[in-house]
Amino acid sequence: MSMQKIREEIDRIDDELVETFARRMNAVSKIAKVKAEGGTAVAHPDREREIILRTTGQVPENLSGYTRILMNNLFDLSRSYQRQLMREGEAELVVKIKTAVSDTPKVLPQKARVACQGIAGAYSQLSCDKLFPMADIMYFKSFEGVFSAVEKGMCQYGMLPIENSTYGAVSEVYDLLRSRDVYIVRGTKLQISHALLANSGAKMEGIKEIVSHEQALGQCSEFLAAHPDIKITVYENTATAARIVAESGRLDLASISSPECAGLYELSILDENVRNESGNYTRFICISRNMEVYPGADKMSLMLTTEHRPGALYSVIAKLASLGVNLSKLESRPIPGRDFEFMFYLVLDASVYSEEVLSLLGDMSEGTEMFRYLGAYSEV
Q: What pLDDT, on a 0 to 100 scale, did the predictor assign at position 147?
C-alpha cells in the first residue's frame, strides 16, 4: 500500500475518532446534568479504573500502555467539560484575575513602603531600588518577616529572592509562598557581584574567618574551597555580615557581601570578585497583599498538587503545551505531613489576556486538590 493510501486511511479513522469523541462528550454533558441535580462529585476514580481495565483488555498487549494514556486524557477532558457545564458563569479565579486587570493602575508606583530582608546594602534593597526609585524601605530579619509585613498591611510591597542562576532556588521563599496570602506583581533580575570585605589594614593571608549568607557562600564555593583553613560562619544576610565585620574591628574577619557594603560600612575590598560564575544572577519577586496585574504581564506563577498516580503531572504539562504555553520553571517542594508527596511551583510564559489560558487556570483551580494562583507579572 502506498504512503498516500495509508494517509487516506488514517484521515478516515481520524474523522471517525472525532465523531465518536463528540458523541462521547455529548453523553458526558448528560452525566454532568445528572450529577448537578444530585450534588454528585465530578471525579469518580473507581469508574475510571473500571474503564481502564476494560479498554486495555481489548487491545494487543503492546498497545495497552498507549490505551491507558488515551483514556486518562479522555477522563481529564471529561472532568473539565463537566465542571464547565456544572458551573454558573466563569470560574471564581477567572473573575478575580479579570477584576485585577481592570482595577490595577497602569504603572507600578514609584513611591511605596517596601519590606526587605536584611539591612542597608542587602541585595534585596538593591533589587528594590530597581523597581521603586523612591521606596520607603522597612528592613526585617527574616523572609517570614517580609511576608508578614505585607500580609498585615504594614508594607504595600515586599522584595524577596527566589532563585539564583548558580546556587538554585531559595527554598524558604517557595515554602512561604505556599502558605501565605500574597501575590507576585513584578519580577526583576539582579546581577550579583560578591566581594570579600574586611576592615582597613586587613590582609588576605591574615583572614581566619569569613561570614555571609548561605546562598552567597554557595555562590562562592570555589573561592572558599581554595582556602580550606578559613572558618565559615553563616549569617542571615550578606549586609548584616558586613556590618558585623565593621563592628568587630577584627583584622582576621571578612565578609562576602555586595561591593556597595564597602562604602556603607567603611570596609576595604580584599577581592572584588569571589563568585564562581561571572554571569551570576538572582531573580527577585515583588509581592503584594492584593492581586495586581500591570500592563505587559507575560508570566504567571502558580502552585498545585497533582493526583498521586503515574502521569498526573504529565497531564498538567500536556494541557499547557496544547495551548502553546511554555513552562519556564518547575520546582517541587515536599508537602509537610505527607510522605513523598509534593507541591509543584510553575512559572508559565503566558498572557493574562488569553481567554484560553484563563479558562484552563479556572479549571485547574477547581479540579486540583491544592491550588495557589500567585499572580501575573512581567520581569524587568
A: 98
